[in-house]
Amino acid sequence: MSTYKNLIGKDVNFLTTDPDNEQAEGQIWYNSTAGVFKDVISTNAWSSGGSMITNRYEIAGFGTQTAAVMAVGGIPGASNLVEEYNGTGFTSATVYPATLRNSTACGTETAGLVFGGRIDPPPSTIWQVITREYDGSSWTTGGDMGTGRYGLGGAGVQTSAVAFGGYNTANSNSTEEYNGSSWTAGNAMGTARYRLAGNGTLTAALASGGSTYPYPGAVQTAVEEYDGTNWTNGAVLPAANRMGARSWGEQTNTILSGGNTGSPSYTAAPATINYDGSSWSTKTATLGTGVAQQGSSTGTNSSTGLFAGGQNTGATAVLGVTQEYTESANVITGAAWASGGNMNIGRGLLASAGTSESAMLGAGGYSPAAPANNTWSNVEEYNGSSWSEVNNLPTIKSRFRGAGTQTAAVTFGGFTPLGPNTNYNTTEKYDGTNWTTSGNMNTARCYMAGFGIQTAAVSAGGATLNPDVGFNKTEEYNGTSWSEVNNMPTYQRNHFGVGTLTAGVTTGGKSGPSSTYSGITDTNTTFEYDGTNWTAGGTSLITGGSISGGGTQTVAFFAGYPQAGGNQTLHYDGTSFTTSASLAQKHQAGSGGAPQTAGVIFADASDYNAFTEEFTGAFNATKTITTS
Protein backbone atom coordinates (compact mmCIF):
# COMPACT_ATOMS: atom_id res chain seq x y z
CA MET A 1 0.00 0.00 0.00
CA SER A 2 1.40 3.39 -1.00
CA THR A 3 1.68 6.05 1.68
CA TYR A 4 1.60 9.83 1.33
CA LYS A 5 5.38 9.92 1.92
CA ASN A 6 5.98 7.28 -0.75
CA LEU A 7 3.88 9.23 -3.28
CA ILE A 8 4.95 12.77 -2.42
CA GLY A 9 8.30 12.24 -0.72
CA LYS A 10 7.34 14.16 2.43
CA ASP A 11 5.73 13.37 5.74
CA VAL A 12 2.42 14.84 6.88
CA ASN A 13 3.63 17.56 9.23
CA PHE A 14 1.95 18.58 12.47
CA LEU A 15 1.81 22.39 12.59
CA THR A 16 0.25 24.89 14.97
CA THR A 17 -0.27 27.47 12.19
CA ASP A 18 -0.79 27.19 8.43
CA PRO A 19 2.24 27.77 6.14
CA ASP A 20 1.96 30.82 3.91
CA ASN A 21 4.55 30.13 1.22
CA GLU A 22 4.31 28.60 -2.25
CA GLN A 23 6.45 25.62 -1.18
CA ALA A 24 3.37 24.40 0.69
CA GLU A 25 1.48 23.94 -2.57
CA GLY A 26 0.04 20.44 -2.89
CA GLN A 27 1.13 19.46 0.61
CA ILE A 28 -1.10 18.16 3.36
CA TRP A 29 -0.53 19.05 7.01
CA TYR A 30 -2.32 18.64 10.30
CA ASN A 31 -3.16 21.90 12.06
CA SER A 32 -3.01 20.89 15.71
CA THR A 33 -4.56 24.17 16.85
CA ALA A 34 -7.67 23.70 14.70
CA GLY A 35 -7.58 19.90 14.93
CA VAL A 36 -8.02 19.39 11.16
CA PHE A 37 -6.03 18.33 8.11
CA LYS A 38 -5.41 21.09 5.53
CA ASP A 39 -3.87 21.63 2.11
CA VAL A 40 -3.22 24.56 -0.19
CA ILE A 41 -3.26 24.82 -3.95
CA SER A 42 -1.48 27.49 -5.95
CA THR A 43 -3.96 29.48 -8.02
CA ASN A 44 -4.31 32.80 -9.78
CA ALA A 45 -7.12 35.28 -9.40
CA TRP A 46 -8.19 38.87 -9.97
CA SER A 47 -9.90 40.67 -7.11
CA SER A 48 -11.26 44.17 -6.56
CA GLY A 49 -9.15 46.80 -4.85
CA GLY A 50 -10.03 50.28 -3.69
CA SER A 51 -11.21 52.35 -6.64
CA MET A 52 -9.31 55.37 -7.94
CA ILE A 53 -10.32 58.78 -6.61
CA THR A 54 -10.67 60.12 -10.16
CA ASN A 55 -11.54 57.87 -13.11
CA ARG A 56 -8.79 58.04 -15.75
CA TYR A 57 -7.24 56.28 -18.74
CA GLU A 58 -3.85 56.53 -20.48
CA ILE A 59 -2.26 56.57 -17.01
CA ALA A 60 1.44 56.29 -16.23
CA GLY A 61 1.63 53.71 -13.44
CA PHE A 62 4.61 52.35 -11.54
CA GLY A 63 5.43 50.49 -8.33
CA THR A 64 4.04 47.27 -6.88
CA GLN A 65 0.62 45.93 -5.94
CA THR A 66 0.92 47.29 -2.39
CA ALA A 67 2.89 50.47 -3.15
CA ALA A 68 1.84 51.92 -6.51
CA VAL A 69 1.61 55.36 -8.10
CA MET A 70 -0.87 56.35 -10.84
CA ALA A 71 0.19 59.61 -12.50
CA VAL A 72 -1.44 61.90 -15.09
CA GLY A 73 -3.94 60.46 -17.59
CA GLY A 74 -7.12 61.44 -19.43
CA ILE A 75 -10.40 62.34 -17.67
CA PRO A 76 -10.85 62.41 -20.78
CA GLY A 77 -8.81 65.62 -21.10
CA ALA A 78 -5.21 65.44 -19.88
CA SER A 79 -4.58 65.86 -16.14
CA ASN A 80 -1.78 66.34 -13.63
CA LEU A 81 -3.38 64.13 -10.96
CA VAL A 82 -1.31 61.65 -8.95
CA GLU A 83 -2.65 58.97 -6.61
CA GLU A 84 -0.83 56.44 -4.43
CA TYR A 85 -2.12 52.93 -3.66
CA ASN A 86 -1.20 51.07 -0.45
CA GLY A 87 -2.68 47.67 -1.29
CA THR A 88 -6.11 48.68 -0.03
CA GLY A 89 -7.03 52.08 -1.40
CA PHE A 90 -5.83 55.29 -3.03
CA THR A 91 -4.85 58.63 -1.52
CA SER A 92 -4.00 61.88 -3.29
CA ALA A 93 -0.30 62.66 -3.81
CA THR A 94 1.74 65.59 -5.10
CA VAL A 95 0.46 66.58 -8.54
CA TYR A 96 2.63 66.06 -11.61
CA PRO A 97 4.45 69.19 -12.85
CA ALA A 98 2.72 68.98 -16.27
CA THR A 99 -0.75 68.14 -17.59
CA LEU A 100 -0.39 64.99 -19.71
CA ARG A 101 -1.88 61.73 -20.87
CA ASN A 102 -0.52 58.69 -22.70
CA SER A 103 2.85 58.87 -20.92
CA THR A 104 4.58 55.75 -19.61
CA ALA A 105 6.45 54.97 -16.41
CA CYS A 106 8.64 52.51 -14.52
CA GLY A 107 10.29 52.14 -11.14
CA THR A 108 9.04 52.01 -7.57
CA GLU A 109 6.81 54.22 -5.43
CA THR A 110 9.84 55.96 -3.92
CA ALA A 111 11.99 55.96 -7.09
CA GLY A 112 9.70 56.32 -10.08
CA LEU A 113 10.17 57.63 -13.60
CA VAL A 114 7.53 59.12 -15.96
CA PHE A 115 8.42 60.03 -19.54
CA GLY A 116 6.86 61.08 -22.83
CA GLY A 117 3.15 61.66 -23.33
CA ARG A 118 0.87 64.21 -24.94
CA ILE A 119 -0.95 67.34 -23.82
CA ASP A 120 -4.49 68.65 -24.38
CA PRO A 121 -5.62 70.70 -26.17
CA PRO A 122 -2.92 70.01 -28.74
CA PRO A 123 -0.66 72.86 -29.92
CA SER A 124 1.50 72.43 -33.00
CA THR A 125 3.64 69.84 -31.18
CA ILE A 126 1.67 67.64 -28.79
CA TRP A 127 4.22 64.87 -28.17
CA GLN A 128 6.47 65.43 -25.20
CA VAL A 129 10.15 64.86 -24.39
CA ILE A 130 9.86 65.66 -20.68
CA THR A 131 11.01 63.24 -17.97
CA ARG A 132 10.13 63.49 -14.30
CA GLU A 133 11.49 61.54 -11.32
CA TYR A 134 9.44 60.79 -8.18
CA ASP A 135 10.89 60.12 -4.71
CA GLY A 136 7.66 59.21 -2.96
CA SER A 137 6.68 62.78 -2.16
CA SER A 138 7.95 65.21 -4.82
CA TRP A 139 8.75 65.45 -8.53
CA THR A 140 12.06 66.61 -10.02
CA THR A 141 13.07 67.15 -13.64
CA GLY A 142 15.15 64.52 -15.40
CA GLY A 143 16.86 64.65 -18.80
CA ASP A 144 14.69 65.22 -21.88
CA MET A 145 14.13 62.36 -24.29
CA GLY A 146 15.77 62.65 -27.69
CA THR A 147 12.48 61.96 -29.47
CA GLY A 148 9.18 63.25 -28.11
CA ARG A 149 6.33 60.75 -28.38
CA TYR A 150 3.22 59.38 -26.72
CA GLY A 151 1.66 55.92 -26.42
CA LEU A 152 5.16 54.49 -25.94
CA GLY A 153 6.34 51.43 -24.03
CA GLY A 154 8.82 51.39 -21.19
CA ALA A 155 10.69 49.14 -18.77
CA GLY A 156 13.32 49.26 -16.05
CA VAL A 157 13.90 51.40 -12.97
CA GLN A 158 14.53 55.10 -12.32
CA THR A 159 18.29 54.91 -12.92
CA SER A 160 18.26 52.30 -15.67
CA ALA A 161 15.26 52.51 -18.00
CA VAL A 162 14.38 51.95 -21.64
CA ALA A 163 11.69 53.66 -23.79
CA PHE A 164 10.50 52.24 -27.10
CA GLY A 165 7.85 52.73 -29.78
CA GLY A 166 5.14 55.39 -29.60
CA TYR A 167 3.97 58.07 -32.01
CA ASN A 168 4.98 61.61 -33.03
CA THR A 169 4.82 62.50 -36.73
CA ALA A 170 4.75 58.79 -37.54
CA ASN A 171 4.63 55.42 -35.84
CA SER A 172 7.95 55.02 -34.06
CA ASN A 173 10.31 52.08 -33.62
CA SER A 174 13.02 54.12 -31.88
CA THR A 175 14.61 53.04 -28.59
CA GLU A 176 16.20 55.22 -25.93
CA GLU A 177 18.03 54.30 -22.72
CA TYR A 178 18.08 56.34 -19.49
CA ASN A 179 20.93 56.26 -16.97
CA GLY A 180 19.33 58.34 -14.23
CA SER A 181 20.19 61.70 -15.77
CA SER A 182 20.12 61.52 -19.58
CA TRP A 183 18.75 59.54 -22.53
CA THR A 184 20.81 57.99 -25.31
CA ALA A 185 19.65 56.35 -28.54
CA GLY A 186 19.60 52.56 -28.77
CA ASN A 187 18.93 50.17 -31.64
CA ALA A 188 15.48 50.38 -33.23
CA MET A 189 12.67 47.88 -32.77
CA GLY A 190 11.65 45.71 -35.69
CA THR A 191 8.02 46.90 -35.72
CA ALA A 192 6.99 50.54 -35.41
CA ARG A 193 3.84 50.94 -33.27
CA TYR A 194 2.21 52.78 -30.39
CA ARG A 195 -0.18 51.90 -27.53
CA LEU A 196 1.98 48.84 -26.85
CA ALA A 197 2.69 47.07 -23.56
CA GLY A 198 6.15 47.09 -22.02
CA ASN A 199 7.80 45.46 -19.00
CA GLY A 200 11.04 44.01 -17.70
CA THR A 201 14.43 45.68 -17.26
CA LEU A 202 16.83 47.68 -19.43
CA THR A 203 18.76 44.53 -20.34
CA ALA A 204 15.74 42.20 -20.51
CA ALA A 205 12.69 44.12 -21.73
CA LEU A 206 9.58 42.91 -23.54
CA ALA A 207 7.43 44.87 -26.04
CA SER A 208 4.01 43.35 -26.81
CA GLY A 209 1.15 44.19 -29.15
CA GLY A 210 0.01 47.73 -29.87
CA SER A 211 -1.30 49.31 -33.06
CA THR A 212 -0.39 51.78 -35.77
CA TYR A 213 -1.63 55.35 -36.17
CA PRO A 214 -4.00 56.85 -37.25
CA TYR A 215 -6.28 55.42 -34.59
CA PRO A 216 -7.29 52.63 -34.45
CA GLY A 217 -4.86 51.54 -37.16
CA ALA A 218 -3.70 47.95 -37.51
CA VAL A 219 -3.72 45.97 -34.28
CA GLN A 220 -0.32 44.30 -33.75
CA THR A 221 0.51 40.85 -32.40
CA ALA A 222 4.30 41.32 -32.66
CA VAL A 223 6.38 40.62 -29.55
CA GLU A 224 10.01 41.70 -29.29
CA GLU A 225 12.69 41.08 -26.67
CA TYR A 226 15.47 43.56 -25.83
CA ASP A 227 18.79 42.50 -24.30
CA GLY A 228 20.15 45.99 -23.68
CA THR A 229 21.56 46.24 -27.21
CA ASN A 230 19.39 44.49 -29.78
CA TRP A 231 15.75 43.56 -30.34
CA THR A 232 14.80 40.02 -31.40
CA ASN A 233 11.42 38.56 -32.22
CA GLY A 234 9.58 36.61 -29.54
CA ALA A 235 6.47 34.45 -29.85
CA VAL A 236 3.59 36.52 -31.28
CA LEU A 237 0.54 37.19 -29.14
CA PRO A 238 -2.06 34.43 -29.43
CA ALA A 239 -4.83 36.80 -30.56
CA ALA A 240 -5.09 40.22 -32.21
CA ASN A 241 -6.79 41.80 -29.22
CA ARG A 242 -3.88 43.49 -27.56
CA MET A 243 -4.10 47.11 -28.59
CA GLY A 244 -3.85 49.14 -25.37
CA ALA A 245 -3.04 46.08 -23.23
CA ARG A 246 -0.83 46.31 -20.14
CA SER A 247 1.89 43.97 -18.84
CA TRP A 248 4.26 43.49 -15.91
CA GLY A 249 6.84 41.03 -14.60
CA GLU A 250 10.07 39.70 -16.04
CA GLN A 251 10.89 39.19 -19.73
CA THR A 252 10.71 35.43 -19.23
CA ASN A 253 7.68 35.49 -16.94
CA THR A 254 5.31 38.22 -18.10
CA ILE A 255 1.63 38.73 -17.31
CA LEU A 256 -0.44 40.65 -19.88
CA SER A 257 -4.13 41.58 -19.70
CA GLY A 258 -6.67 44.04 -21.06
CA GLY A 259 -6.63 45.57 -24.51
CA ASN A 260 -9.09 45.35 -27.39
CA THR A 261 -9.63 44.08 -30.93
CA GLY A 262 -9.62 47.48 -32.58
CA SER A 263 -12.26 48.92 -34.92
CA PRO A 264 -15.19 48.69 -35.11
CA SER A 265 -16.15 47.05 -31.78
CA TYR A 266 -13.13 47.73 -29.53
CA THR A 267 -14.20 44.65 -27.57
CA ALA A 268 -12.47 44.45 -24.19
CA ALA A 269 -10.15 41.48 -23.68
CA PRO A 270 -10.53 40.29 -20.07
CA ALA A 271 -8.28 37.24 -20.57
CA THR A 272 -4.93 37.10 -18.77
CA ILE A 273 -1.98 35.54 -20.58
CA ASN A 274 1.55 34.57 -19.55
CA TYR A 275 4.82 34.65 -21.51
CA ASP A 276 7.60 32.31 -20.36
CA GLY A 277 10.25 33.56 -22.76
CA SER A 278 9.29 31.24 -25.58
CA SER A 279 5.48 30.91 -25.72
CA TRP A 280 2.21 32.38 -24.45
CA SER A 281 -0.37 30.52 -22.35
CA THR A 282 -3.74 31.53 -20.94
CA LYS A 283 -4.28 31.88 -17.20
CA THR A 284 -7.53 30.79 -15.56
CA ALA A 285 -8.05 34.26 -14.06
CA THR A 286 -9.82 36.93 -16.08
CA LEU A 287 -10.34 40.61 -15.32
CA GLY A 288 -13.56 41.15 -13.42
CA THR A 289 -14.12 44.33 -15.44
CA GLY A 290 -12.88 44.14 -19.00
CA VAL A 291 -10.59 47.06 -19.85
CA ALA A 292 -10.64 47.82 -23.56
CA GLN A 293 -7.65 50.11 -23.56
CA GLN A 294 -5.16 52.30 -21.78
CA GLY A 295 -5.49 51.37 -18.16
CA SER A 296 -2.29 51.16 -16.14
CA SER A 297 -0.54 48.18 -14.62
CA THR A 298 2.21 47.83 -12.04
CA GLY A 299 4.23 44.95 -10.65
CA THR A 300 7.81 43.74 -10.64
CA ASN A 301 7.09 40.01 -10.79
CA SER A 302 4.44 37.74 -12.28
CA SER A 303 2.96 36.74 -8.92
CA THR A 304 1.33 40.05 -8.05
CA GLY A 305 0.12 42.95 -10.15
CA LEU A 306 -2.28 45.86 -10.22
CA PHE A 307 -4.54 47.09 -13.02
CA ALA A 308 -6.23 50.48 -12.60
CA GLY A 309 -8.45 52.74 -14.69
CA GLY A 310 -8.77 52.54 -18.47
CA GLN A 311 -11.76 52.56 -20.80
CA ASN A 312 -14.42 49.95 -21.31
CA THR A 313 -15.79 48.25 -24.42
CA GLY A 314 -16.33 50.82 -27.15
CA ALA A 315 -13.92 53.17 -25.36
CA THR A 316 -16.93 55.26 -24.31
CA ALA A 317 -16.58 55.28 -20.52
CA VAL A 318 -13.57 56.15 -18.40
CA LEU A 319 -13.04 53.70 -15.53
CA GLY A 320 -11.79 54.06 -11.98
CA VAL A 321 -11.87 50.38 -11.04
CA THR A 322 -8.80 48.78 -9.48
CA GLN A 323 -8.12 45.08 -9.95
CA GLU A 324 -5.42 43.10 -8.20
CA TYR A 325 -3.79 39.98 -9.65
CA THR A 326 -2.34 37.35 -7.36
CA GLU A 327 -0.77 33.97 -8.15
CA SER A 328 0.19 32.20 -4.96
CA ALA A 329 -0.30 29.22 -2.74
CA ASN A 330 -2.15 31.60 -0.45
CA VAL A 331 -4.26 33.80 -2.71
CA ILE A 332 -5.97 36.65 -0.93
CA THR A 333 -9.39 37.47 -2.32
CA GLY A 334 -9.89 41.21 -2.08
CA ALA A 335 -12.62 43.01 -0.23
CA ALA A 336 -15.82 43.65 -2.20
CA TRP A 337 -19.45 44.68 -2.04
CA ALA A 338 -21.99 41.95 -2.83
CA SER A 339 -25.74 42.10 -3.37
CA GLY A 340 -28.04 41.53 -0.41
CA GLY A 341 -31.82 41.25 -0.29
CA ASN A 342 -33.82 44.12 -1.78
CA MET A 343 -35.98 46.32 0.42
CA ASN A 344 -39.73 46.02 -0.07
CA ILE A 345 -40.01 49.73 -0.92
CA GLY A 346 -37.53 51.54 -3.15
CA ARG A 347 -36.79 54.96 -1.67
CA GLY A 348 -34.11 57.33 -0.46
CA LEU A 349 -33.56 60.01 2.20
CA LEU A 350 -34.44 57.53 4.96
CA ALA A 351 -33.07 57.01 8.46
CA SER A 352 -31.17 53.92 9.58
CA ALA A 353 -29.95 52.19 12.71
CA GLY A 354 -27.94 49.05 13.35
CA THR A 355 -24.45 47.89 14.21
CA SER A 356 -24.55 44.50 12.49
CA GLU A 357 -25.13 43.49 8.87
CA SER A 358 -27.64 40.93 10.13
CA ALA A 359 -29.69 43.44 12.15
CA MET A 360 -30.34 46.73 10.31
CA LEU A 361 -33.29 49.11 10.36
CA GLY A 362 -34.54 51.44 7.61
CA ALA A 363 -37.30 53.96 8.36
CA GLY A 364 -39.33 56.57 6.47
CA GLY A 365 -37.91 58.12 3.32
CA TYR A 366 -39.00 59.57 0.01
CA SER A 367 -39.97 58.26 -3.43
CA PRO A 368 -42.41 59.29 -6.18
CA ALA A 369 -44.54 56.20 -5.44
CA ALA A 370 -45.09 57.08 -1.80
CA PRO A 371 -48.44 58.17 -0.42
CA ALA A 372 -48.81 61.52 1.33
CA ASN A 373 -46.85 63.75 -1.04
CA ASN A 374 -44.09 61.20 -1.71
CA THR A 375 -43.08 60.59 1.92
CA TRP A 376 -43.15 57.28 3.81
CA SER A 377 -43.69 56.21 7.41
CA ASN A 378 -42.92 52.57 6.57
CA VAL A 379 -40.18 50.75 8.49
CA GLU A 380 -38.26 47.62 7.46
CA GLU A 381 -35.85 45.30 9.29
CA TYR A 382 -32.95 43.43 7.67
CA ASN A 383 -31.71 40.07 8.95
CA GLY A 384 -28.68 39.74 6.72
CA SER A 385 -30.53 38.22 3.78
CA SER A 386 -34.01 39.74 3.51
CA TRP A 387 -36.11 42.73 4.56
CA SER A 388 -39.46 42.53 6.36
CA GLU A 389 -41.94 45.30 7.10
CA VAL A 390 -42.61 46.09 10.75
CA ASN A 391 -44.60 48.75 12.60
CA ASN A 392 -44.64 52.18 10.96
CA LEU A 393 -43.17 55.38 12.33
CA PRO A 394 -45.62 57.60 14.24
CA THR A 395 -44.78 60.38 11.73
CA ILE A 396 -44.47 60.43 7.94
CA LYS A 397 -41.09 61.98 7.14
CA SER A 398 -37.81 61.85 5.21
CA ARG A 399 -34.39 63.57 5.26
CA PHE A 400 -33.84 62.59 8.91
CA ARG A 401 -31.31 60.54 10.88
CA GLY A 402 -31.20 57.55 13.16
CA ALA A 403 -28.86 56.02 15.72
CA GLY A 404 -28.62 52.92 17.89
CA THR A 405 -29.39 49.30 17.11
CA GLN A 406 -32.24 47.43 15.44
CA THR A 407 -33.87 46.72 18.81
CA ALA A 408 -32.99 50.03 20.47
CA ALA A 409 -33.14 52.75 17.84
CA VAL A 410 -33.85 56.47 17.86
CA THR A 411 -34.79 58.69 14.90
CA PHE A 412 -34.97 62.49 14.92
CA GLY A 413 -35.67 65.56 12.79
CA GLY A 414 -36.81 65.37 9.19
CA PHE A 415 -39.04 67.00 6.61
CA THR A 416 -42.28 66.37 4.73
CA PRO A 417 -44.16 68.38 2.07
CA LEU A 418 -47.33 67.82 4.12
CA GLY A 419 -48.73 70.82 5.91
CA PRO A 420 -47.20 72.07 3.58
CA ASN A 421 -43.43 71.93 4.04
CA THR A 422 -43.02 70.80 7.63
CA ASN A 423 -39.58 70.70 9.23
CA TYR A 424 -39.62 68.34 12.23
CA ASN A 425 -38.00 68.41 15.65
CA THR A 426 -39.76 65.20 16.70
CA THR A 427 -37.97 62.15 18.14
CA GLU A 428 -39.08 58.52 17.89
CA LYS A 429 -37.73 55.53 19.83
CA TYR A 430 -37.99 51.88 18.71
CA ASP A 431 -37.70 48.83 20.98
CA GLY A 432 -37.66 46.19 18.28
CA THR A 433 -41.45 46.08 18.07
CA ASN A 434 -43.10 49.41 18.85
CA TRP A 435 -42.42 53.10 18.28
CA THR A 436 -42.96 55.80 20.91
CA THR A 437 -42.47 59.55 20.69
CA SER A 438 -39.91 61.15 22.96
CA GLY A 439 -38.49 64.61 23.73
CA ASN A 440 -38.29 67.05 20.83
CA MET A 441 -35.05 68.60 19.57
CA ASN A 442 -34.68 72.29 20.37
CA THR A 443 -34.40 73.15 16.66
CA ALA A 444 -36.52 71.58 13.91
CA ARG A 445 -34.33 70.59 10.94
CA CYS A 446 -33.42 67.96 8.36
CA TYR A 447 -30.26 66.88 6.50
CA MET A 448 -28.29 66.75 9.77
CA ALA A 449 -25.66 64.17 10.77
CA GLY A 450 -26.55 61.73 13.52
CA PHE A 451 -24.63 59.14 15.51
CA GLY A 452 -24.54 57.35 18.87
CA ILE A 453 -26.99 55.04 20.63
CA GLN A 454 -30.60 55.38 21.76
CA THR A 455 -29.67 56.80 25.16
CA ALA A 456 -26.68 58.88 24.03
CA ALA A 457 -27.13 60.33 20.55
CA VAL A 458 -25.90 63.42 18.70
CA SER A 459 -27.66 65.58 16.08
CA ALA A 460 -25.26 67.95 14.30
CA GLY A 461 -25.76 70.63 11.67
CA GLY A 462 -28.61 70.35 9.18
CA ALA A 463 -31.04 72.77 7.58
CA THR A 464 -34.68 73.72 7.21
CA LEU A 465 -36.40 73.70 3.83
CA ASN A 466 -38.88 76.34 2.67
CA PRO A 467 -37.50 78.60 4.08
CA ASP A 468 -33.94 77.39 3.46
CA VAL A 469 -31.71 77.99 6.47
CA GLY A 470 -28.51 76.16 7.43
CA PHE A 471 -27.35 75.28 10.96
CA ASN A 472 -24.16 74.62 12.89
CA LYS A 473 -26.06 73.61 16.02
CA THR A 474 -25.23 70.46 17.98
CA GLU A 475 -27.67 68.72 20.31
CA GLU A 476 -27.19 65.68 22.57
CA TYR A 477 -29.94 63.20 23.50
CA ASN A 478 -29.95 61.27 26.79
CA GLY A 479 -32.78 58.91 25.96
CA THR A 480 -35.43 61.35 27.17
CA SER A 481 -34.58 64.92 26.19
CA TRP A 482 -32.26 67.01 24.01
CA SER A 483 -29.81 69.70 25.14
CA GLU A 484 -27.83 72.18 23.05
CA VAL A 485 -24.04 71.91 23.30
CA ASN A 486 -21.05 73.39 21.43
CA ASN A 487 -21.73 74.31 17.82
CA MET A 488 -19.95 72.79 14.84
CA PRO A 489 -17.12 74.99 13.45
CA THR A 490 -19.10 75.69 10.24
CA TYR A 491 -22.66 75.43 8.97
CA GLN A 492 -23.07 71.86 7.71
CA ARG A 493 -25.84 69.93 5.94
CA ASN A 494 -26.21 66.74 3.86
CA HIS A 495 -23.23 65.26 5.74
CA PHE A 496 -23.12 61.85 7.44
CA GLY A 497 -21.93 60.85 10.89
CA VAL A 498 -20.84 57.65 12.63
CA GLY A 499 -19.47 56.71 16.04
CA THR A 500 -20.52 57.45 19.60
CA LEU A 501 -21.47 60.54 21.61
CA THR A 502 -17.88 60.82 22.92
CA ALA A 503 -16.11 59.71 19.71
CA GLY A 504 -18.04 60.70 16.62
CA VAL A 505 -17.06 61.81 13.12
CA THR A 506 -18.94 63.58 10.31
CA THR A 507 -17.79 64.14 6.75
CA GLY A 508 -18.84 65.52 3.40
CA GLY A 509 -22.04 67.35 2.58
CA LYS A 510 -22.39 71.07 2.13
CA SER A 511 -20.69 73.73 4.21
CA GLY A 512 -20.77 77.49 4.53
CA PRO A 513 -19.64 80.41 6.66
CA SER A 514 -23.23 81.39 7.51
CA SER A 515 -26.76 80.06 7.53
CA THR A 516 -27.44 81.54 4.11
CA TYR A 517 -28.46 78.61 1.95
CA SER A 518 -27.09 80.18 -1.23
CA GLY A 519 -23.63 80.45 0.38
CA ILE A 520 -23.33 76.75 1.21
CA THR A 521 -21.20 74.68 -1.19
CA ASP A 522 -20.07 71.05 -1.50
CA THR A 523 -17.28 70.23 0.93
CA ASN A 524 -14.75 67.51 1.78
CA THR A 525 -14.44 68.70 5.38
CA THR A 526 -14.36 66.18 8.23
CA PHE A 527 -15.06 66.98 11.89
CA GLU A 528 -14.52 64.82 14.98
CA TYR A 529 -16.52 65.14 18.22
CA ASP A 530 -15.25 64.09 21.68
CA GLY A 531 -18.45 64.65 23.63
CA THR A 532 -17.62 68.32 24.23
CA ASN A 533 -15.67 69.88 21.37
CA TRP A 534 -15.45 69.63 17.58
CA THR A 535 -12.02 69.44 15.90
CA ALA A 536 -10.95 69.11 12.27
CA GLY A 537 -10.34 65.58 11.00
CA GLY A 538 -8.67 64.33 7.84
CA THR A 539 -9.76 65.86 4.55
CA SER A 540 -11.97 63.56 2.50
CA LEU A 541 -10.77 62.45 -0.93
CA ILE A 542 -14.16 63.31 -2.47
CA THR A 543 -16.08 66.56 -2.22
CA GLY A 544 -19.84 66.31 -1.67
CA GLY A 545 -22.46 64.57 0.36
CA SER A 546 -25.71 62.58 0.24
CA ILE A 547 -23.68 59.58 1.42
CA SER A 548 -24.07 56.75 3.93
CA GLY A 549 -21.65 55.09 6.31
CA GLY A 550 -20.94 53.07 9.40
CA GLY A 551 -18.31 52.06 11.92
CA THR A 552 -16.48 54.09 14.53
CA GLN A 553 -14.51 57.32 14.61
CA THR A 554 -11.24 55.52 13.84
CA VAL A 555 -12.57 52.64 11.70
CA ALA A 556 -15.28 54.16 9.53
CA PHE A 557 -16.62 53.76 6.00
CA PHE A 558 -18.54 56.26 3.88
CA ALA A 559 -20.10 55.31 0.55
CA GLY A 560 -22.21 56.68 -2.27
CA TYR A 561 -20.85 60.10 -3.32
CA PRO A 562 -23.12 61.03 -6.25
CA GLN A 563 -20.62 63.74 -7.17
CA ALA A 564 -18.14 60.94 -8.11
CA GLY A 565 -20.56 58.56 -9.83
CA GLY A 566 -22.47 57.25 -6.81
CA ASN A 567 -20.49 54.05 -6.21
CA GLN A 568 -17.33 55.23 -4.43
CA THR A 569 -16.36 53.93 -0.97
CA LEU A 570 -13.90 55.62 1.37
CA HIS A 571 -12.38 54.24 4.58
CA TYR A 572 -11.34 56.53 7.45
CA ASP A 573 -8.83 55.58 10.16
CA GLY A 574 -9.24 58.63 12.38
CA THR A 575 -6.54 60.51 10.50
CA SER A 576 -6.88 60.02 6.75
CA PHE A 577 -9.06 58.54 4.03
CA THR A 578 -8.33 55.82 1.48
CA THR A 579 -10.50 54.45 -1.29
CA SER A 580 -11.98 50.98 -0.99
CA ALA A 581 -13.95 48.55 -3.17
CA SER A 582 -16.58 50.18 -5.37
CA LEU A 583 -20.30 49.64 -4.87
CA ALA A 584 -22.07 47.74 -7.64
CA GLN A 585 -25.00 50.19 -7.62
CA LYS A 586 -25.57 53.87 -6.95
CA HIS A 587 -26.80 54.67 -3.44
CA GLN A 588 -27.30 58.44 -3.48
CA ALA A 589 -28.90 59.60 -0.22
CA GLY A 590 -29.57 56.01 0.78
CA SER A 591 -28.63 54.78 4.21
CA GLY A 592 -26.59 52.13 5.98
CA GLY A 593 -24.44 51.20 8.92
CA ALA A 594 -22.61 48.34 10.66
CA PRO A 595 -18.80 48.07 11.05
CA GLN A 596 -16.30 49.06 8.36
CA THR A 597 -15.31 45.42 7.88
CA ALA A 598 -18.91 44.24 7.35
CA GLY A 599 -20.83 47.33 6.31
CA VAL A 600 -24.30 47.52 4.79
CA ILE A 601 -25.72 50.16 2.46
CA PHE A 602 -29.25 50.28 1.07
CA ALA A 603 -31.78 52.39 -0.86
CA ASP A 604 -31.19 55.21 -3.36
CA ALA A 605 -32.71 58.66 -3.88
CA SER A 606 -31.68 59.07 -7.52
CA ASP A 607 -33.58 56.15 -9.07
CA TYR A 608 -35.43 55.11 -5.86
CA ASN A 609 -33.96 51.62 -5.97
CA ALA A 610 -34.38 49.06 -3.20
CA PHE A 611 -30.87 47.60 -3.61
CA THR A 612 -28.91 46.39 -0.59
CA GLU A 613 -25.16 45.72 -0.65
CA GLU A 614 -22.93 44.07 1.95
CA PHE A 615 -19.19 44.50 2.39
CA THR A 616 -16.93 41.46 2.71
CA GLY A 617 -13.29 41.63 3.74
CA ALA A 618 -10.37 39.74 2.23
CA PHE A 619 -9.79 36.01 2.79
CA ASN A 620 -7.23 33.41 1.73
CA ALA A 621 -7.37 30.14 -0.17
CA THR A 622 -6.16 27.62 2.41
CA LYS A 623 -8.54 24.65 2.42
CA THR A 624 -9.70 22.38 5.22
CA ILE A 625 -9.90 18.71 4.32
CA THR A 626 -13.08 17.05 5.50
CA THR A 627 -13.08 13.38 6.43
CA SER A 628 -15.86 10.84 6.87
Describe the structure.
This protein has 628 residues and is mostly beta strands. The chain folds into three domains: 4-41, no CATH class; 55-334, 6 Propeller (Neuraminidase), CATH 2.120.10.80; 338-616, Neuraminidase (6 Propeller). It is built from three helices and 59 strands. The strands form 16 sheets. A four-stranded mixed beta sheet has the order 1-2-3-59, with no helix packed on it. A hairpin with a 4-residue loop joins strand 52 and strand 53 (556-560). Mean pLDDT is 89; it is low at 621-628.
Q: What is the helix content? A: under 10%
Count the domains: 3
Return the CATH topology of the largest domain: Neuraminidase
Mean pLDDT: 89
How are strands sequenced across the largest beta sheet? 1-2-3-59
Distance between the termini: 20 Å
Radius of gyration, whole Å: 28 Å
So, CATH architecture of the largest domain?
6 Propeller
CATH superfamily assignment of the largest domain? Kelch-type beta propeller
The dominant shape is elongated
Characterize the largest beta sheet: strand count, sense, and whether it forms a barrel: 4 strands, mixed
Give the total of beta strands: 59
Q: What's the level 1 CATH class of the largest domain?
A: Mainly Beta
Approximate strand percentage: 35-45%
Derived from helix and strand composition plus strand pairing, the structural class reads mainly beta
